[in-house]
């Protein structure tokens, strides 16, 4: 407590938003009371104060990242260490509230200074307290629910590129997902994107179960590193103490990685790959590994956005992310690509907590859509098409329209029924190569008869051969 009142004034240099100060404790120990990750209060000669975080320790030199930036900061400023890391407010009162990257309210709501504070960036969960993923999170997005099911405690990114509607898509999942609490973390957002998320949650009537941590593009870079930790610390508390099913939405993790790179360069660290630091993998893993289904409590599920510069999946951020997460959703040209997307945990729920025909429908639809793409390639190369190829082309168009469009919203059971209807509109039961019991139970024979009748009418209406 006494150490937290001591001020240090031997500022060595100020580079960008980085401040280095020499610190020697009262007992002569190098570094004094400074600890990695702790907060410090920097007071300028004009008595203006700003928070900073300890991001480097080297003997008696402490490196601080100043949240508000160092513009106008004098080398005659003083530094006081607070003795604790960054904290986030946690209570039922934070639901429906918006905070910035350092946890201060942005919405002008009631004061929360008396509410409980929790430290961020804690250790990952003890593996003995984890449960095997076994529960589905419904999103009402057919390309997710039917073909790449989202599972509680899963960590999965949306791979996309600039210009794609990934933020609109993420907001819609936050609205439609059957989670108890949604915690949103935005990094480097322009104001329009921030307003999109907030207005979408408010208009849908789900803002009361949502907590938002937002770092805008004009805010300090260091806050982008704190936003995921803030969001995950709060989510973990809701899951453990309130037994809530929490969905964490993060966008954009590439902006988070770029902030790591910028700070690493300012600290004279040696870059590893395309300017990113060598610890990029561990920095991403520290956040993603917070996803967990807690034994005897709730769960934390992480759905993030990772933009790929130049649509390059080998870029260091998506490349490292792919080794950490349990699959990915690949969003391009406004649709979820069924071949680029993958959920490695879907087998834990498909056919077990979902309908018995789920697995067969999923596999058949993808197999036939793959054949439809081959048929389309044959057509584009002017090869002769069979009658089955023609039906495959029709099926491929229906599949794109009814399922791949991210604006389509259907409950899982309705989506499965629509799959059966789509199959019946294009194929006969024996062409599906599915289990006979499932075909007898779910195949809509009335749709098949309508199709056959339409085909017969088309043949009868064709002009006869001229003698």
From TrEMBL:
Q: Which terms in the Gene Ontology molecular function aspect does this entry carry?
A: ATP binding; hydrolase activity
Q: Where is the ATP synthase A/B type C-terminal domain?
A: 351-442
Query: Where do the TM regions start and end?
Result: none
UniProt keywords, alphabetically: Hydrolase, Ion transport, Transport
EC number, UniProt record: 3.6.3.14
Q: Which InterPro entries match?
A: ATP-synt_VA_C, ATPase_F1/V1/A1_a/bsu_N, ATPase_F1/V1/A1_a/bsu_nucl-bd, P-loop_NTPase, V-ATPase_su_B/beta
| Hydrolase found in the keyword field | yes
The answer to whether keyword Ligase applies is: no
Q: Which positions fall inside the ATPase F1/V1/A1 complex alpha/beta subunit N-terminal domain? A: 36-83
Alphabetized SUPFAM superfamilies for the sequence:
P-loop containing nucleoside triphosphate hydrolases
Domain ATPase F1/V1/A1 complex alpha/beta subunit nucleotide-binding, residue spans = 142-333
Q: What Pfam families does this protein's entry cite? A: ATP-synt_ab, ATP-synt_ab_N, ATP-synt_VA_C
- Signal sequence span is none
| CDD domains per UniProt | V_A-ATPase_B
GO BP annotations, alphabetical order: ATP metabolic process; proton transmembrane transport
Q: Which family does it belong to?
A: Belongs to the ATPase alpha/beta chains family.
Family annotation (NCBIfam families): PRK02118.1 (NF002555), PRK04196.1 (NF003235)
Per the entry, what this protein does is: Produces ATP from ADP in the presence of a proton gradient across the membrane. The V-type beta chain is a regulatory subunit.
Name-wise, this protein is ATP synthase subunit B
């Amino acid at each position: 407590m006494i150490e937290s009142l001591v001020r240090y004034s031997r500022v060595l240099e100020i580079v960008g938003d980085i401040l280095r100060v020499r610190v020697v404790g009262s007992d002569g120990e190098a570094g004094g009371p400074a600890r990695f990750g702790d907060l410090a209060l920097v007071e300028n000669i004009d008595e203006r104060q700003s928070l900073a975080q300890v991001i480097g320790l080297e003997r008696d030199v402490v490196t601080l990242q100043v949240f508000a930036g160092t513009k106008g900061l004098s080398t005659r400023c003083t530094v006081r260490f607070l003795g604790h890391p960054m904290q986030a407010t946690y209570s039922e009162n934070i639901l429906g509230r918006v905070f910035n990257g350092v946890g201060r309210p942005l919405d002008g709501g009631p004061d929360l200074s008396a509410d409980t504070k929790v430290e961020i960036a804690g250790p990952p969960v003890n593996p003995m307290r984890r449960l095997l993923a076994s529960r589905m999170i419904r999103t009402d997005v057919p390309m997710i629910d039917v073909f790449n099911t989202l599972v509680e405690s899963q960590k999965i990114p949306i791979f996309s590129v600039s210009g794609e509607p990934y933020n609109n898509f993420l907001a819609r999942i936050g609205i439609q997902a059957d989670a108890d609490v949604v915690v949103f973390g935005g990094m480097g957002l322009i104001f329009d994107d921030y307003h999109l998320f907030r207005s979408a949650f408010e208009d849908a009537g789900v803002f009361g179960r949502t907590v938002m941590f937002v770092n805008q593009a004009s805010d300090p870079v260091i806050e982008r590193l704190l936003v995921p930790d803030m969001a995950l610390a709060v989510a973990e508390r809701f899951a453990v103490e309130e037994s809530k099913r929490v969905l964490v939405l993060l966008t954009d993790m590439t902006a988070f990685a770029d902030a790591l790179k910028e700070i690493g360069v300012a600290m004279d660290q040696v870059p590893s790959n395309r300017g990113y630091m060598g610890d990029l993998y561990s920095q991403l893993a520290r956040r993603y590994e917070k996803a967990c289904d807690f034994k005897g409590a709730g769960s934390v599920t992480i759905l993030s956005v990772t933009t790929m510069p130049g649509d390059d999946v080998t870029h260091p951020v998506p490349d490292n992310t792919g080794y950490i997460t349990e699959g990915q959703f690949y969003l391009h040209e406004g649709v979820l690509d069924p071949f680029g997307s993958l959920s490695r945990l879907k087998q834990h729920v498909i056919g077990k907590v979902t309908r018995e025909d789920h697995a067969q429908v999923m596999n058949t639809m993808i197999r036939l859509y793959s054949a439809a793409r081959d048929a389309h390639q044959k057509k584009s190369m002017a090869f002769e098409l069979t009658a089955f190829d023609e039906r495959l082309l029709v099926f491929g168009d229906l599949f794109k329209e009814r399922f791949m469009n991210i604006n389509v919203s259907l409950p899982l059971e309705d989506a499965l029924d629509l799959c059966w209807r789509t199959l019946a509109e294009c194929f006969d039961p024996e062409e599906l190569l599915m289990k006979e019991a499932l075909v007898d139970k779910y195949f809509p024979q009335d749709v098949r008869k309508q199709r056959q009748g339409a085909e017969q009418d088309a043949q009868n209406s064709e002009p006869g051969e001229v003698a």
